[in-house]
């Protein structure tokens, strides 16, 4: 049985609840039926309240329990799952609909496509810009072109190790926090609670994940810049360019100037992660395209008319990166409070832990491809050229798969944070479906058009023959690549960063061993087989992880198996964030045996709310006060005017503050309700040790107002 939402007079609230609690189990059903019949009678002075579902942890299936109002102001009805929906989800018709859905691009499928397409264009903009830079620098001279290539390789390696993990972590955390903020905002609007920003006229949201990400990005960017400037000579020595080489001077010049672009690059990526968390990929596309156009324009001005050469190319790139970062921050600032000193240390630790795992994953990927490239170089210049053509084609078309992974990550993170596991499963199905179709389409396109595409890179028949052989491996692996990339996005969507890192490390280790053994025997065929194995192991790991229902996936899949108890026992990320929210929203519940019919209750509530807010230093509109009258109670053996109160979520138990609160509230009750101070009993609850559904105190201070 589910009592979803009912309306009762305020002076009957606790009486009905305590009456049911006092009856024996056989009588509870009668009490519930009588109460329900009574509640059907309309009354002009009804207040809407919520009772929890009888499926909560009750001794009897028919027992109802009363609990104080939730501090976040959201009715308990939102925590009750409609059994009809659950039965529908597990019915044969629902399963058949799911199967049919694989062949239909529904609303969620369209959401995935609408997020992925702009993201793919934004991802493709950077390689295109690199080609433009290469074209300009190539007209200066071969030594300068080679020097820029080496410097870019160093810069990209350092940036990729740190920037990409921050981008992916930011996307997941911002999507999660955006979903939670929307949840709280809707509840606040329903309950008439205004945030401090709304009260001051500032409509921007405050999402700590954005502030934390930007702060970390700025710090990491400055460290990257200093490391590249101070260590440019050492890094160039490591890659093997001697001091007497004609490439040495232009390489150091380009890398030193390019280092000044490290801060805007990583800040822009953090901002892109925030927009991706909002499921907005159009704004980053606009900013990236604008920056790249400026880069091309400045290249044409700095390199030749001003005669700056390689230094001009670096300055043009840095200027465009600052422009991109400025556009993104400007647009983001119109929606979000960018910087705040209220950054929680726990959020920073969470970023660092997740980022460290993804750094390990990135290292595994980079090392695997480094091993394959070095082995291909040992085969000779012609095989290496053919290998490079196939690899560049492979990396370019993988941008589509990356974009799909991004869309799946943002949507899954949002639904998972809200606890909407049914929709999360639909997102999972759809992104895998679209990924599989995309992989097959890319494979078909490459198979039919690679002969024409390869002519864009070279006209050497020997190189084209080698590339034509390698394209078979590239084509066959496309569906596998799509699944592997999408699986990465799904990992990130549920913050399963640990498995993403460990599975990639395992796949990279096994594949590198195969490469080292197969390449000497089978040449490029062995290299492509090793890379295909690398992607296959990642795809298999994704299917196994998602299907095994381990870690965070257990929560998503538990309801499909009818295991309702698993959902109640598992503390989700949504519940943890709600607990944090409750700490910031104090809740005062007062019950009295005084009849409130002739009392100005609005004045009592206003005075109590202001008093609590002033003493604990919280905004008044974040303090909830609940007052119940005509509640049967005996105090000291008499039924003279008395009151009982509970103060929840005041941010910790402080005896001095609690004494002030008890005295102040007692004064209000004495002046407004004629309740003697000595007959008021106030109990304090620490939100850190309360359960999520029933407020069970582990320790508290209790004061009689004297």
From TrEMBL:
NCBIfam families: matE. Keywords: Membrane, Transmembrane, Transmembrane helix. One of its GO terms (cellular component) is membrane. The chain crosses the membrane at residues 214-239, 259-278, 285-304, 351-371, 391-413, 434-457, 469-487, 499-519, 525-544. Belongs to the MIF family. Belongs to the multi antimicrobial extrusion (MATE) (TC 2.A.66.1) family. Residues 566-582 have a biased composition (Basic residues). Residues 560-582 are annotated as: Disordered. This is Protein DETOXIFICATION.
């Amino acid at each position: 049985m589910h009592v979803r939402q009912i309306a009762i007079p305020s002076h009957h609230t606790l009486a009905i609840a305590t009456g049911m609690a006092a009856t024996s189990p056989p009588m509870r059903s009668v009490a519930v039926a009588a109460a329900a019949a009574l509640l059907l009678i309309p009354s002009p002075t009804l207040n809407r309240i919520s009772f929890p579902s009888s499926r909560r942890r009750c001794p009897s299936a028919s027992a109802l329990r009363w609990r104080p109002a939730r501090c976040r102001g959201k009715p308990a009805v939102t925590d009750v799952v409609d059994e009809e929906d659950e039965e529908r989800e597990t019915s044969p018709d629902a399963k058949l609909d799911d199967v049919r859905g694989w062949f239909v691009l529904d609303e969620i499928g369209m959401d995935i496509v609408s997020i992925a397409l702009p993201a793919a264009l934004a991802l493709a903009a950077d390689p295109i810009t690199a080609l433009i830079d290469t074209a300009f620098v190539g007209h200066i001279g071969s030594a300068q072109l080679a020097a820029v290539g080496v410097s870019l390789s160093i810069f990209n390696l350092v940036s990729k190790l740190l920037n990409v993990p921050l981008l992916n972590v930011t996307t997941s955390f911002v999507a999660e926090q955006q979903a939670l903020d929307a949840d709280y905002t809707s509840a606040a609007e329903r309950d008439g609670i205004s945030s401090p920003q709304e009260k001051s006229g500032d409509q921007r949201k405050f999402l700590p994940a954005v502030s934390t990400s930007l702060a970390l990005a700025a710090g990491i960017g400055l460290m990257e810049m200093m490391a590249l400037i101070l260590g440019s000579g050492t890094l160039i020595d490591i890659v093997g360019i001697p001091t007497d080489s004609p490439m040495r001077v232009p390489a150091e010049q380009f890398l030193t100037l390019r280092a000044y672009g490290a801060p805007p690059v990583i800040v822009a990526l953090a901002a892109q992660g925030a927009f991706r968390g909002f499921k907005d990929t159009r704004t980053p596309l606009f900013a990236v395209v604008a920056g790249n156009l400026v880069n091309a324009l400045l290249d044409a001005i700095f390199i030749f008319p001003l005669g700056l050469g390689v230094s001009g190319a670096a300055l043009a790139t840095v200027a465009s990166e600052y422009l991109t970062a400025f556009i993104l921050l400007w647009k983001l600032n119109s929606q979000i409070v960018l910087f705040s000193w209220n950054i929680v240390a726990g959020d920073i630790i969470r970023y660092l832990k997740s980022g460290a795992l993804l750094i390990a994953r990135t290292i595994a990927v980079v090392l695997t491809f480094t091993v394959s490239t070095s082995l291909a170089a040992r085969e000779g210049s012609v095989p290496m050229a053919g290998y490079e053509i196939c690899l560049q084609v492979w990396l370019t078309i993988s941008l589509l798969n990356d974009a799909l992974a991004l869309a799946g990550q943002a949507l899954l993170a949002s639904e998972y944070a809200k606890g909407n596991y049914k929709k999360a499963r639909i997102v999972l199905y759809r992104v895998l479906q679209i990924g599989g179709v995309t992989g097959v389409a890319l494979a078909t396109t490459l198979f039919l058009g690679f002969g024409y595409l390869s002519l864009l890179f070279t006209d050497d028949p020997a190189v084209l023959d080698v590339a034509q052989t390698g394209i078979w491996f590239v084509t066959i692996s496309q569906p596998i690549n799509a699944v592997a990339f999408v699986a990465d996005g799904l990992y990130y969507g549920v913050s399963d960063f640990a498995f993403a890192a460990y599975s990639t490390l395992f796949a990279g280790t096994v594949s590198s061993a195969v490469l080292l053994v197969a390449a000497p025997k089978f040449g490029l065929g062995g290299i492509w087989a090793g890379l295909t194995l690398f992607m296959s192991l990642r795809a298999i790991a994704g299917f196994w992880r998602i299907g095994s229902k381990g870690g965070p996936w257990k929560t998503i899949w538990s309801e499909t198996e009818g295991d309702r108890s698993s959902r109640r026992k598992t503390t989700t990320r949504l519940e943890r964030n709600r607990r944090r929210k409750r700490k910031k929203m104090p809740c005062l519940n007062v019950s009295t045996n005084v009849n409130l019919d002739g009392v100005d209750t609005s004045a009592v509530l206003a005075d109590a709310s202001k008093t609590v807010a002033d003493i604990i230093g919280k905004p008044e509109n974040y303090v909830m006060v609940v007052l119940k009258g005509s509640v049967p109670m005996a105090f000291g053996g008499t039924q003279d005017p008395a009151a009982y109160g509970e103060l929840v979520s005041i941010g910790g138990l402080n005896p001095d503050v609690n004494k002030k609160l008890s005295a102040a509230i007692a004064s209000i009750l004495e002046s407004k309700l004629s309740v003697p101070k000595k007959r008021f009993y106030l109990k304090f609850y620490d939100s850190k040790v309360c359960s999520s559904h029933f407020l069970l105190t582990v320790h508290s201070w209790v004061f009689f107002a004297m």
